[in-house]
Design goal:
Elements: H1 6-15, E1 23-31, E2 36-42, E3 50-54, H2 66-76, E4 81-88, E5 93-97
Length: 99
């Protein structure tokens, strides 16, 4: 897994043909098997972590820091979870699986 800086993010925007107005919003966790996103992480009880899910990226839990997204991905501890980059254009949200 790789850390992303502004230069790498700009290169991803160009490589995927996104509009020049596309903005990088942060990182989300995507469950490939169910095509859902982690939306809630609840640690209210000691030793128990609960996860809530969303079918749309609008409701996904957004991470500003890559390292935090990776940490939570490992906490979920199930196969098929990937860190994705979330971009916003004037008309839609775009998700890119981590290369």
């Amino acid at each position: 897994m790789k850390k992303y800086n502004k230069h790498r993010i700009q290169k991803i925007i160009e490589e995927h043909g996104f509009p020049v107005t596309a903005k990088f919003k942060g990182y989300v966790l995507h469950l490939q098997t169910t095509n859902e996103f982690i939306a809630i992480i609840d640690r209210k009880m000691i030793g128990v972590i609960s996860f809530g899910f969303s079918i749309t990226p609008e409701s996904a839990l957004l991470f500003k820091r890559y390292e935090k997204a990776v940490k939570e991905m490992h906490e979920y501890n199930k196969n098929g979870v990937t860190v994705c980059l979330l971009f916003e254009t004037e008309t839609q949200l775009l998700i890119i699986n981590e290369p």
